[in-house]
Design a protein that fits this description.
heterodimer, A: 705 residues, alpha+beta, 4-stranded antiparallel beta sheet, 19 helices, 26 strands, B: 323 residues, mainly alpha, two-stranded antiparallel ribbon, 12 helices, globular
Chain lengths: 705, 323
């Protein structure tokens, strides 16, 4: 009863989604967006007309002005600095625009250009000090804040009356300040245009990438040849220019040079930036985050003002939000990987009946013996990690290696070893096609084709993305084994879509059906996912009927048959289940039966743990990785089974001296060749009563040697 | 041949001497006994604040919220006495508020790992906002009869020297003792010099950092009490002024490098004298407030540039994002 409940709970509750969602980059933007919605909703409920068009247009104008400043600050923060002088630059450029227009009577275009130049120069002072002289950004811009502010105070003492008494009546100037296009205020429109450009700039253009790179790691950026100092300086210049754009709109809207213009603006903008999720210290941030942050802060301050809160409350609210946002951001950035790795592992319920006996004297098809004790070793100590082995018609032996090569041992004595092809990823299952091309599954890369002359070609590395998956599962993460049908359709297994190749034991710990079987059509070059939700699908072999494939589910401890053609097309049926070990590769035997490698034997502890998902989750959260339960892969065996799923024969090695660990086996001219992914050799075993002329793929393609 | 180099302390002292000399010669009314006492009295509070700032700067931090600690708790004392509480109760409340404030600062910086500049910028706003919104009725908290006797902290003279200068002297001795004679002081230097090395040596870095900010806030509160006693009120709008930059100026000019681990009380005294002379001279020259700020800003900028050349940032221990 309890087991049933557990099994139901784990079948229908998607534990694995949390980790997958958290590991998405967009979650970091999603949180401020949700906050924005909550704030907007709360204020619209408690304040009348909060979301009326007039109020919204007013908010949009303010948001546009502050948004420009926030964009500039975002750039500076992403590059790893901070700019506190924006408030004072805002005030000075506001003064600059109004002075040129009202007192000197310049035409509007000249005023705009001069104001932007003024902002650029004020920013350049920061840029030179912080970028080239490498002063501390915070303290430096704090000082320029004071200097610019004092300069502004001195200037308005002299000119505020002249500016206040002028009433310029210039339509184009008024349009900048108060105009709108189809109801959208000009400033909001301008902001949208510049924000879109900013987004493209940061995510698609080289200088934008340089900025992010410097913020991420200044020294690495320097070492990779990025002009660090110049880029940093230019970010401050950009901040100055963007601030002056905001000031231009402000000047044209209000036309005043009051004493408190821009005072405390830096705190508002900084709060918006941090709240939007742009990381202090650099390297992360986006235009969208900046915009969301500005909106939240404006909604809160405007809302509080409408509710007649005292000045101090507003200040406290801003400071409090700023602190909490900074704290959350800093803790999150620091612990992100750890948190994700803790919640990412989501074990599920997996129940297996007690395994059939294997001990000597207990009888049964899996009874242990010592047939493999005298296996010969080929390439001992010279090859590493031959997951699969295959032989061609000329008896040459091919095997993958950990170094990303396909190695070839030359017949007849297999002493000479050479690199047949270099691929770059770990080669796993292999198969020859009709034209003697070698198809190989490469862990982490996909399906590759190697021509007889050793040229490497990519067959496929992506399949259709499933709509319901949070992780992008279109890329092939762990292509494992394959076989080719008579029509040139390649079926290959992808063991897991949630883990990388080196993390495969964790997938076993999770025991969820994370794997799939994918087909690649060599004629149309189309890749298609055939089956999903398999528990570490591994070995694949086209059955003798030519209409179905047999595949092994390693952690499902079963062999299944999938009909890809014929009357039962699409059906999956069990051939063998409750195996005593973890099945790996399947290959044809000369007598029409199938070879199957059991990479390791089941243990009572893991069987029990599979029924206790909570236990495994606690383990993943609290125990260091190297002390987790690990599926046993120390002892295994080779078995031969027939079409009906009956075990015909089993081959054991009780001591594991000559060939410990078996992941695959290949029959060839009366011998059985053994591969093992953690081995440093290839095994060769003389079979009794085997066809001395059997060459697997020659038989498959009807070629007689 | 040994390279001939001044250390910063000597340079600043030389500049101070030069400035003093120039002012004495060219400024009428500068070199009078009255003006000297005024000068010292004016910078006493600044000096005490400089001591407070010195503690955190030596520990590789900074405390922008110092002015809030100066304004709000003493303001609370005055307000509570005005509302009829007894002076000791009010003082106790202020001290508790200060300690709580210091704890918050320290926790944010040591445990939540928010950069100190950033954390104190925000907490300063928070405390000032709290004062404005909840504690005070007016921007300037007035003296009330219940406070009588307390003004002796900032007014009057002892042995012919104004009390505020005595207060600065006492603060100097206490801080010097803390920094030089106690284990805690040695730990602060160690943390400021290399926080990671300090931590692996087994120094309880985090509690020490928290303690730094508590002590700093307490000294700030003390400075505020002296200020309130000397002007018989607490102008809480002082938070909006540029006083904090003067304090940083004192510390940086005095030769306590912002990269931490260096300097001491003597540096604060030298820095205070220099700033005091400068401010006094500018006041006598009748330079406007904004003009004074401009000059101070430029001087501070030059000081920070010089500091960055004399005490370059240690690239090994400087953190990414150490802004």
């Amino acid at each position: 009863m309890r087991d049933t409940l557990t099994s139901l709970r784990y079948r229908y509750w998607p534990d694995h989604l949390l980790g997958e969602i958290l590991s998405k980059r967009w979650t970091e933007t999603a949180i401020p967006v949700i906050l924005l919605l909550i704030v907007g909703f709360a204020f619209s409920r408690s304040i009348d007309n909060f979301l009326s068009p007039a109020s919204l247009a007013d908010t949009a104008r303010q948001a546009g002005e502050i948004g420009f400043i926030a964009l500039g600050l975002a750039l500076v923060v992403i590059v790893g600095g901070i700019d506190l002088s924006v408030g004072s630059i805002f005030a000075l450029t506001d003064f600059c625009a109004l002075y040129l227009l009202d007192v000197l009577g310049w035409p509007v275009p000249a005023v705009v250009v001069a104001t932007l130049l003024c902002g650029a120069m004020l920013g350049a002072v920061n840029g030179i000090l912080v970028g080239y002289l490498r002063l501390r950004a915070f303290i430096t811009t704090l000082i320029t804040l004071i200097i610019y502010r004092s300069a502004y105070d001195l200037l308005i003492q002299r000119y505020s009356n002249a500016i206040a008494s002028a009433f310029p009546d210039i339509p184009s100037w008024d349009f900048i300040g108060a105009g709108s296009v189809f109801g959208v205020p000009t400033v909001a429109l301008a902001y949208i245009v510049i924000a879109i450009f900013g987004h493209i700039f940061l995510t698609r253009l080289r200088p934008g990438w340089h900025i992010t790179a410097i913020g991420g790691s200044r020294r690495s950026a320097y070492n990779s040849g990025i002009p660090v100092r110049r880029t940093i300086a230019l970010c401050y210049v950009a901040s100055g220019v963007l601030t002056s754009i905001g000031a231009l709109f402000f000047a044209s809207r209000l036309g005043t040079v009051g004493g408190d213009i821009g005072v405390g603006l830096e705190v508002i903008v900084l709060t918006a930036t941090v709240l939007g999720g742009i990381t202090l210290g650099g390297g992360k941030g986006s235009v969208a985050k900046s915009a969301v942050g500005v909106l939240i802060v404006l909604l809160i301050t405007n809302g509080l003002t409408t509710m007649n809160a005292r000045g101090g409350v507003n200040r406290m609210a801003l400071a409090g939000i700023l602190l909490v946002a900074a704290m959350v951001d800093i803790r999150w950035q620091k612990n992100r990987t750890r948190i994700i790795s803790k919640v990412y592992v989501a074990p599920t319920y997996h129940e297996l009946p007690p395994p059939p006996p294997t001990e000597i004297g207990q009888g049964g098809p899996f009874e242990q013996n010592d047939k493999l004790r005298d296996v010969e070793a080929i390439g001992l100590g010279r090859i590493e990690a031959p997951e699969d082995v295959i032989l061609d018609r000329h008896d040459n032996l091919y095997a993958g290696s950990r170094h990303g090569d396909i190695m070839r041992f030359l017949a007849p004595d297999y002493q000479k070893m050479e690199v047949f092809a270099h691929i770059g990823g770990q080669p796993l299952g292999m198969a020859f096609d009709r034209e003697d091309n070698l198809y190989v599954c490469i862990g982490g890369m996909g399906l590759y084709r190697i021509k007889p002359d050793g040229t490497v070609e990519k067959a496929t590395d992506e399949t259709n993305r499933s709509m319901r998956s949070v992780n992008d599962d279109s890329r092939l993460r762990l292509a494992d084994d394959l076989d080719i049908t008579d029509d040139g359709l390649i079926f290959f297994s992808e063991a897991t879509v949630r883990y990388e190749m080196d993390e495969w034991p964790i997938d076993g710990l999770e025991a969820r059906g994370n794997g799939r079987i994918i087909s690649y059509d060599t004629k149309t070059r189309a890749t298609r996912t055939e089956l999903r939700g398999l528990k570490f699908p591994n070995g694949i072999c086209v059955a003798s009927d030519g209409q179905s494939i047999l595949f092994a589910e390693t952690f499902g401890c079963s062999i299944k048959r999938y009909w890809f053609a014929g009357p039962k097309k699409g059906a999956v049926e069990i051939v063998m289940d409750n195996l005593p070990g973890y099945p790996d590769n399947i290959n044809l035997a000369s007598d029409g039966n199938y070879w199957l490698a059991l990479v390791g034997m089941r243990s009572p502890s893991l069987d029990l743990a599979w029924k206790m998902p909570g236990f495994r989750r606690r383990m993943a959260k609290r125990v260091p990785v190297d002390e987790w339960l690990f599926p046993n892969i120390n002892t295994g065996c080779v078995v031969k089974f027939n079409e009906q799923g009956k075990i015909v024969e089993s081959f054991w090695d009780l001591h594991g001296e000559n060939h410990p660990m078996i992941t695959s086996m290949r029959e060839h001219r009366g011998y059985l060749y053994l591969g093992g992914i953690l081995n440093n050799r290839i095994g060769r075993y003389k079979l009794d009563n085997a066809d001395p002329n059997f060459v697997q793929y020659d038989k498959r393609w009807g070629k007689l040697s | 041949m040994k390279r001939f180099r001044f250390n910063q302390q000597e340079i600043v002292f030389a500049v101070f001497a030069l400035l003093f000399l120039v002012f004495s010669i060219f400024l009428k009314g500068f070199l009078t006994a009255d003006n000297m006492l005024t000068l010292l009295q004016n910078v006493a509070v600044l000096g005490i604040l400089g001591l407070a700032m010195a503690i955190v700067v030596i520990g590789r931090g900074i405390d922008i919220s110092l002015i809030a600690a100066l304004a709000v708790p003493p303001g609370l004392v005055l307000q509570m006495v005005q509302n009829g509480h007894s002076l000791p109760t009010s003082l106790l409340a202020a001290v508790l508020l200060t300690i709580a404030f210091g704890l918050v600062n320290g926790w944010l910086i040591a445990y939540a790992e928010v950069p100190s500049l950033f954390a104190t910028l925000a907490t300063g706003l928070l405390l000032a906002g709290l004062g404005q919104a909840a504690l005070f009725q007016l921007d300037v908290v007035q003296w009330s009869p219940g406070m009588n006797g307390f003004e002796r902290l900032g007014q009057g003279t002892v042995l012919g020297i104004p009390t505020s200068i005595w207060m600065f002297a006492i603060a100097c001795i206490v801080v010097a003792f803390l920094l030089r004679q106690t284990r805690w002081g040695a730990y602060i230097y160690a943390i400021g010099d290399n926080p990671y090395a300090a931590r692996v040596t087994g120094i309880p870095s985090r509690p020490i950092i928290v303690l730094q900010y508590v002590v700093t806030a307490l000294i700030g509160c003390f400075a505020g009490l002296v200020l309130a006693a000397s002007v018989n009120s607490m102008p809480t709008r002082i938070f909006n002024s540029t006083l904090i930059y003067d304090v940083i100026l004192v510390v940086v000019l005095g030769g306590i490098g912002l990269s931490g681990g260096r300097g001491g009380v003597l540096n604060v005294i030298i820095g205070t004298l220099l700033i005091g002379t400068m401010l006094n001279g500018m006041t006598i020259m009748d330079i406007s407030y904004a003009g004074q700020n401009l000059i101070k800003g430029v001087v501070l900028l030059l000081a920070v540039i010089t500091d960055s050349f004399l005490n370059p940032r240690n690239e090994e221990t400087a953190q990414q994002g150490d802004i």
